[in-house]
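Researcher: I'd like a candidate sequence for this fold, 752 residues long. If you have to choose between options at a position, lean toward the conservative one.
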């Protein structure tokens, strides 16, 4: 049960700065203040229930499980071949889940309004208040709110019931989780308020000045005109006001937009190495009393995609070294966990990653806040399918009715994040072609369908735009309506200029998924367009397994299905990949040596649940990741670290546990050295050097003998590093080592 009591009172903070006071007013629950945003995760009752009886207020939920959100019920269950999600969906169950909670109010203010905000729930989420349906939101990756006010008893008990319906499966090509898997907030305001995501910051840095335009949408639900003051300030990290503006406005129903221009002198820029964040506060006052407020972080930076030289941040030419990430957190499932998410991003940064593509949906807000604060670039992506679906029950069923609302809400929610450099309006959508028939296709064959070579008849012909091209234009127009400052792309695995998305002319940046061999043709095929590899590689690796000879390339699964291999293992030499992809070294060599290529996003940074290409059940998680599900790097992690960072790298692999006399290939990734020499039990196996900047590892073919393999790196004849692999003895004990000495939950750090 949740009790809120509102009374008229005064609030004062003695000897506190105005900055701290304002942040408290805007962020935290305060008695007597009109606006509140309360984290509402705790104390929900939950059960799987296939009928709709729990929507009734009188329903007895006393035997239901008591839990705190975020919650993913599917990850708690068993994997099974017969679950309709299939191995691609993680082989975990779906179903209908119900969450119930009480809200007790003692509120005599007739002008107060309440809303329930969900950062995300998968999927088809319906909210009931006191047995009445408030609304339903189908898309499982979008943030949304419902106005509860018309349904509430402000002087007593209220029953909130939430149905999350993930029973129709398969509805995704990867594991999505089930339930209210992101945070929930209870919001309170007056009948005149700042609209949700209603403050937009448009920035420009020019001649040493940061120009900040703030557009603020004020909603008026009171039924009468109101005379208000909008006061806005920009604060630096020292809690000092560096720019401010106030404007008196007459707010009419239903809403009024107010714009204010401010100038930040000698601004500190947001960059990868120094992601400086200002704080913007907005107060709405009536008769000198604050009736609503808002706060968000602001980064001042310049972004440019250049046709010839790629990407520039603050005038500096930077190669985008990115990874794609799905939303699950391995054994934790899809339920958002700030500590686990922070660990993922930090591990990627330590590898040298400077960008993340949110694949293939709007991410949890915490990820964007992390990227803002840590200095990581983001491509924010909306959909994996449009009107033509990839699985029987995916978003295509809802696209026609919901795409405009969902795309708008993604842009409104995320547009003030300085980390975001591009919007992506889709990933490998079937509308690239004129018509694709995937009726009755097995789920594990969808990726083969997406990457099949098609003849010219499947592509746009002539100068007349077809409906798929016009749809692309419509989606891009929605994005530009709500954010005119950023460019738009899409992840396309059809790289012909006659791709309907390219033909539309609506994409500012050409995005290739794979096809690194055709990068050389981009200037001719797409003159005047910046270029980015939105998805690359699709290498297949099992950490610790090595298939020899290592100079053989294994492409899987091949177009012939079903593909079988009783080992369910893929080689961790960089010699195994999906047939549509490449090795890590092959694509990086193209990206590195192509100035007009802005960069790449590798598929993927971490392994994820679902999509176990090239296998089917009992495989149920991906092999694509550079880091595995448990958070342990695979060997290719160190290749990128040697190329993308200034850290000294010396990584010898594989392990040194084999059959005596067996022929073994040893590889070494290294940097900051002229040569490396291998020793087996003290005997030199030869010196190796990377002969040019198109080589990324060296190798030896040796005969195994128990003992140790040691590699020595030298620069200018001086030893600068050593690494040893020893033959293991009999198992003795298991050691668990925490990744930090002090365990502390980061509760609010990335929710602001």
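Model: Candidate sequence:
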């Amino acid at each position: 049960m949740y009790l809120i009591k509102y009374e008229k009172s005064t609030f004062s903070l003695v000897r506190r700065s105005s900055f701290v006071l304002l942040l408290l007013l805007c962020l935290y629950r305060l008695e007597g203040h009109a606006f509140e945003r309360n984290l509402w995760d705790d104390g929900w009752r939950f059960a799987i229930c296939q009928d709709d009886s729990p929507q009734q207020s009188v329903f007895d939920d006393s035997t239901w499980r008591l839990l705190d959100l975020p919650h993913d019920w599917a990850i708690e269950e068993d994997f099974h071949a017969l679950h309709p999600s299939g191995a691609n969906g993680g082989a975990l169950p779906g179903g209908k889940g119900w969450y119930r909670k009480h809200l007790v109010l003692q509120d005599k203010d007739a002008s107060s309004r309440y809303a329930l905000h969900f950062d995300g729930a998968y999927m088809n989420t319906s909210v009931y208040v006191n047995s009445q349906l408030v609304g339903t939101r189908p898309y499982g990756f979008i943030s949304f709110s419902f106005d509860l006010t018309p349904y509430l008893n402000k002087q007593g008990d209220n029953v909130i019931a939430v149905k999350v319906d993930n029973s129709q499966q398969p509805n995704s090509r990867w594991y999505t989780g089930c339930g209210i898997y992101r945070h929930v907030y209870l919001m309170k305001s007056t009948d005149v308020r700042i609209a949700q995501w209603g403050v937009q910051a448009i920035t420009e840095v020019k001649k040493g000045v940061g120009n900040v335009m703030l557009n603020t949408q004020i909603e008026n639900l009171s039924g009468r005109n109101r005379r208000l003051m909008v006061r806005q300030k920009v604060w630096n990290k020292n809690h000092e006001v560096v720019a401010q503006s106030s404007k008196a406005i007459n707010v009419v129903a239903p809403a009024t937009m107010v714009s204010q221009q401010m100038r930040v002198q000698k601004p500190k820029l947001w960059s990868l190495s120094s992601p400086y964040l200002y704080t913007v506060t907005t107060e709405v006052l009536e008769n000198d009393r604050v009736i609503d407020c808002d706060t968000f972080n602001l980064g001042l930076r310049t972004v440019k995609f250049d046709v010839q030289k790629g990407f520039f941040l603050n005038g500096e030419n930077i190669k985008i070294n990115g990874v794609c990430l799905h939303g699950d957190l391995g054994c934790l499932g899809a339920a958002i966990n700030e500590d686990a998410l922070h660990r993922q991003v930090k591990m990627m940064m330590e590898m040298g990653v400077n960008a993340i593509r949110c694949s293939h949906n709007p991410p949890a807000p915490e990820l964007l806040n992390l990227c803002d604060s840590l200095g990581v670039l983001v491509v924010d992506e909306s959909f994996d399918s449009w009107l033509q679906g990839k699985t029987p029950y995916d978003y295509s069923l809802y696209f026609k009715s919901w795409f405009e609302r969902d795309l708008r809400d993604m842009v409104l929610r995320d547009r003030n994040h300085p980390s975001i450099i591009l919007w992506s309006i889709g990933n490998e959508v079937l509308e690239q072609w004129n018509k694709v028939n995937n009726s009755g296709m097995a789920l594990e064959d969808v990726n083969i369908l997406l990457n099949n070579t098609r003849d010219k008849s499947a592509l746009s012909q002539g100068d007349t735009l077809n409906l798929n091209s016009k749809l692309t234009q419509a989606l891009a127009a929605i994005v530009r309506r709500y954010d005119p400052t950023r460019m738009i792309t899409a992840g396309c695995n059809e790289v012909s200029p006659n791709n309907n998305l390219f033909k539309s002319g609506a994409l500012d940046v050409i995005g290739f998924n794979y096809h690194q061999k055709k990068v050389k043709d981009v200037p001719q095929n797409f003159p005047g367009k910046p270029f980015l590899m939105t998805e690359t590689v699709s290498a297949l690796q099992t950490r610790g397994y090595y298939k020899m000879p290592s100079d053989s390339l294994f492409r899987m699964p091949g177009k012939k299905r079903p593909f079988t291999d009783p080992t369910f293992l893929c080689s961790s030499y960089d010699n195994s990949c999906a047939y549509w992809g490449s090795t890590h070294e092959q694509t990086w060599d193209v990206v590195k040596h192509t100035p007009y290529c802005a960069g790449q996003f590798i598929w993927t940074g971490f392994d994820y649940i679902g999509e176990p290409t090239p296998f089917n059940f009992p495989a149920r998680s991906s092999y694509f990741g550079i880091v595995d599900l448990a958070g342990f790097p695979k060997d290719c992690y160190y290749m990128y670290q040697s190329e993308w960072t200034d850290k000294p790298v010396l990584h010898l692999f594989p392990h040194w546990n084999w059959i005596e006399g067996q022929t073994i290939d040893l590889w070494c990734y290294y940097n900051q050295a002229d040569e490396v020499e291998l020793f087996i039990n003290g005997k030199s196996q030869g010196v190796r050097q990377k002969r040019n900047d198109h080589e990324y590892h060296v190798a030896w073919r040796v005969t195994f003998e128990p003992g140790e393999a040691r590699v020595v790196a030298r620069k200018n004849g001086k030893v600068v590093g050593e690494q040893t692999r020893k033959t293991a003895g009999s198992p003795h004990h298991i050691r668990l080592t925490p990744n930090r000495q002090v365990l502390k939950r980061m509760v609010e750090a990335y929710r602001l």
